């Protein structure tokens, strides 16, 4: 029987569903200071303890007025208001504005009591030290940011699952929230195995190569918002391999086993993972990436850890990681946006076999306003076909390829 | 004269060009270990010291052969080869393959001398311990990765200016390069100023607000690949303000002055920056973001530092940072890709005035296969209009708005 029929192949979508129905990224939490919230995911709703702004503020340089006093004002028939001084920045004005009175305000000044709008300085003229002419009417609320208009007290201002960008840090700062609870970065163990592998700092003997998958995955895990942990290289020796997997299962939420691509290594990985946990699937209809397997293994406390056996070829390991593992690591995000893509015109035909999802490496070429999408063909063993590529074009399970000249979406490996 | 005509407004593109023609991000370099190369930009070409792989390897499980021996082989008329044993993984085979001989190989095995191709195990049958039947011919080079096929010795394998992703780490590892030279993260000083501002941990008095711009910019600088440095809040007091700017100029390559939005603060910023350095521009035709100014200030060693006065409104400061400063911080990258965008259908009309470039905050709504793009309208003082948004749609200088229903590109604030 041909080897390829020996494992039951499922689609990438089915593989994702199998993982999600048997395992969920555990929600480990930690508190971090404001500056360390960057790029983290909130694990609690943030409720505003107070209004922002805490008082009505001018959004323009000009004059605080009672809007009614300006109704009907025009160039030919200005409204004349009595100037009652200036509101100093950062200070509460003691003065109360009465009918036909005004105070000078700067952008950000607190509005004096009695005022409900601001006239831009450009729409006024100072007649004398005590008199301002207003040439245009303003509506109540015009040119001011009202108390609580940005954030209302007791409002949920940031939801659990929000990715903290600069603007979320700004909101936290504006509310005086200097510490917040976030999800811990998921720990991802990376184990490379195979008798032919040596560490990067070693010189390989003939027949040996350096382990590159560990480092490719290290970077890919970081990009996906995880914390990678590299384990020492394991030869194809059952006891040592099992011990390393068990150690990694204790120390991580996800374990990636990769490296050796020989049938011996694959069989050993399958055998040990089958003994240690529950096999979810073995084989996916993705090119490259077919010989991927997933198991769920319990650690000593009974907690499930996901252990994924990635294909040995570097390109296959990387593409499979992106397709199956990366979405898991982002699982605490409240919303997953449609992936950011660059669109462009395909320069060559991409042939593909229906019945498997194909991820084709491509590079982008800017040509004036146009973006050309150039397939980077190359064996799955060639890491440089990944460094030459900016991302992938996906040919769906049903499609039989893509025609040169067609407009395609490129999912980037990393946004610049 | 209306205040808005008091400064000479230039377009955002002109502003970018002015900056670039007067200032370049200095190339400070450092050496980092392999694991720390992630997300850094290479400052030197990386030349391969050796071939990868260092020997011809099998990419399949099967039998190493001399391709000529399989020519004409078929199901009905197989080629029979003499099995000379198995190549152990990670070891150089001592055996030499002669005419009509073969050795068993696994994926990744070194090819024995005399072999130039591999027959997949599925295309063979083992007749007895010494005889293999081959049912299909292979071409020379088939199912092998030849010595130096991924990387050739002395080849420039990664160029100066490359952003290191996982796959670049993998290439470095495969070459045994465990240390490499990268550009230092650009130091970006952030100064907030304004009498109305207090630090986030303080409780503002009436008329005061907490400084949020510093933290919004902190995150934005991190996203752009810079190293932010926050300075203490400065009141609108000339001596202290000047001293803080001079300190920041010594310690950074770029300094952002932001915070206070009052005319007093703006005038003070302009006055001091005009005294300290060369004013490049004051006022850009961007909404929001008009009152932006840029100067180049020499530090004590005569090195130029770029000092940008950002608008005080949080939304304006953020958008201006993204438009003018972010591209500078990425300036060491060899290539800037077209920005990754999500495309979708606009739900509402966006009005805009020709003659200025408008950046409209939008949020994405997934609706089945469709992506809807919903404008988030809101005053520039409302930080929550930024937290509610996923990115911006840009209305160009010439356009007079965008119509509901049209397909637009959303430049994301951050890719998920």
- Compute the separation of the termini of chain A in Å: 47 Å
The total of beta strands of chain A comes to: 28
Judging by the overall fold, what is the CATH architecture of the largest domain in chain A? Answer: 3-Layer(aba) Sandwich
Q: What percent of residues of chain A adopt helix (DSSP H or I)?
A: 10-25%
Largest sheet of chain A: 6 strands, mixed
What portion of residues of chain A belong to β-strands? Answer: 25-35%
Mean pLDDT of chain A: 93
The parts of chain A where pLDDT drops under 50 for at least 5 residues are: 1-6
The order of strands across the largest sheet of chain A is 7-4-6-5-9-8
Report the largest inter-chain contact.
A-B, 119 and 120 residues
Structural class of chain A: alpha/beta
Please work out how many helical segments of chain A DSSP would assign. Answer: 7
Domain MoaB/Mog (chains A, B): 189-331
Protein name (chains A, B): Molybdopterin molybdenumtransferase
Keywords (chains A, B): Magnesium, Metal-binding, Molybdenum, Molybdenum cofactor biosynthesis, Transferase
Pathway (chains A, B): Cofactor biosynthesis; molybdopterin biosynthesis
């Amino acid at each position: 029987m041909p080897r390829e029929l020996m494992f039951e192949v499922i689609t990438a979508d089915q593989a994702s569903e199998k993982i999600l129905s048997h395992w969920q990224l555990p929600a480990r939490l930690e508190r971090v200071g404001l500056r360390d919230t960057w790029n983290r995911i909130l694990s609690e709703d943030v409720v505003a303890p107070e209004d922002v702004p805490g008082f009505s503020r001018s959004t323009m340089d000009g004059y605080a007025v009672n809007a009614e006093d300006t109704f009907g004002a025009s160039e030919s028939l200005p409204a004349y208001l009595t100037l009652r001084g200036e509101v100093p920045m950062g200070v509460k004005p003691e003065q109360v504005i009465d009918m036909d009175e005004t105070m000078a305000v700067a952008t950000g000044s607190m509005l004096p009591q009695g005022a409900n709008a601001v006239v831009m300085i450009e729409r006024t003229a100072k007649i004398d030290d005590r008199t301002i002419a207003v040439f245009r009417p303003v509506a109540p609320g015009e040119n001011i940011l009202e108390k609580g208009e940005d954030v209302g007290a007791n409002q949920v201002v940031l939801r659990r699952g929000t990715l903290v960008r600069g603007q979320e840090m700004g909101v936290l700062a504006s509310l005086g929230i200097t510490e917040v609870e976030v999800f811990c970065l998921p720990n991802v163990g990376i184990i490379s195995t195979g008798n032919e592998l040596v560490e990067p700092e070693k010189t390989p003997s003939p027949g040996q190569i350096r382990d590159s998958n560990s480092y490719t995955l290290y970077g890919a895990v970081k990009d996906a918002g995880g914390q990678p942990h590299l384990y020492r290289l394991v030869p194809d020796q059952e006891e040592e391999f099992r011990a390393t997997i068990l150690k990694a299962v204790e120390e991580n939420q996800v374990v990636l086993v990769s490296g050796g691509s020989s049938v011996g290594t694959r069989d050993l990985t399958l055998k040990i993972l089958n003994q240690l946990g529950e096999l979810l699937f073995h084989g996916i209809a993705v090119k490259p990436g077919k010989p991927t397997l997933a198991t769920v293994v319990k650690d000593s406390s009974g907690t499930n850890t996901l252990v994924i056996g990635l294909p040995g070829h570097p390109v296959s390991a990387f593409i499979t990681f992106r397709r199956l593992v990366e979405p898991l690591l982002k699982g605490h995000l409240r919303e997953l946006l449609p992936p950011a893509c660059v669109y462009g015109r395909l320069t060559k035909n991409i042939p593909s076999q229906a019945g498997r999802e194909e991820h084709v490496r491509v590079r982008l070429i800017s040509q004036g306003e146009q973006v050309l999408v150039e397939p980077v063909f190359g064996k799955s063993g060639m890491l440089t076909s990944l460094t030459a590529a900016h991302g992938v074009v996906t040919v769906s399970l049903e499609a039989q390829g893509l025609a040169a000249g067609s407009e395609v979406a490129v999912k980037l490996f990393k946004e610049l």
